[in-house]
Write a structure and sequence with these properties.
This protein is mostly helical. The protein has helices at 17-61, 79-103, 105-108, 111-140, 148-154, 166-212; strands at 76-77, 146-147. Keywords: Membrane, Transmembrane, Transmembrane helix.
């Protein structure tokens, strides 16, 4: 397993305190980026879990409209929840790939692929979260057609001994939505850290090369 950037990556001279400082910064930024990526992965898994469970309950309790005691309205839009499922699947997959390229030495050593993944994963995750949230609110704003959030939270105070348990489904719908919203700043932070990490890596590499060649100290 990769232990993160080390001084050997840039042939650090033990007397070069400036370069050592940059390498320490690089280690800290890399650790923060990996931690942020792991957090995004956990949040994505949670959104996927609660959203998929809501769809599963609907699928198992929904009956045709000609039934007299239907628990769900005839006009019902499940697309907002589906958008959360699709968005969270994309977020989970991209962050798993990013973590693999960050922690597995054989993958991390592939510089071009590692750098591309470092940027692509949070960028794709950010786009997926934004699209899912925008679509969710655009459809959920309708006053004519109910969604999981509007329908289950309308009846959340009605006690149910069997599925669908409106209170539980309402809380799951809210949790999935709020976590998806929080994923936006988390993925944005991961993207920002990736950019800063690349900047520090490039500086340290250029500084080390210049020092070995006897060039003037980089500013």
């Amino acid at each position: 397993m990769e232990k993160g950037p080390s001084s050997s990556d840039f042939e650090v001279d033990s007397r070069d305190l400036h370069l050592q400082s940059k390498v320490r910064t690089l280690r800290a930024v890399d650790s923060a980026r990996v931690a942020t990526t792991a957090l995004a992965l956990l949040m994505g898994i949670t959104v996927l879990g609660v959203s998929a469970n809501t769809l599963a309950v609907y699928d198992s309790t929904h009956v045709p409209s000609d039934f007299l005691l239907s628990l769900w309205p005839d006009e019902f839009n499940i697309r907002p929840t589906i958008s959360l499922v699709i968005g969270s699947v994309i977020i989970v997959l991209t962050n798993i790939i990013a973590l693999c390229f960050s922690k597995v030495q054989s993958l991390r050593s592939k510089t071009v692929a590692h750098t591309s993944t470092t940027f692509a994963a949070p960028l794709v995750g950010l786009a997926a979260a934004l699209i899912a949230i925008i679509f969710f609110y655009a459809v959920n704003a309708s006053e004519e057609v109910d969604t999981f959030l509007s329908w289950t939270c309308r009846w959340e105070t009605v006690p149910m001994t069997v599925q669908p348990n409106w209170g539980t489904l309402c809380r799951q719908s809210r949790a999935g939505l709020y976590l998806a919203i929080l994923l936006i700043p988390v993925e944005a932070a991961a993207l920002g850290l990736a950019g800063f990490q690349l900047k520090v890596e490039k500086y340290a590499s250029n500084y080390s090369s210049a020092a070995r060649k006897g060039s003037p100290t980089l500013s």
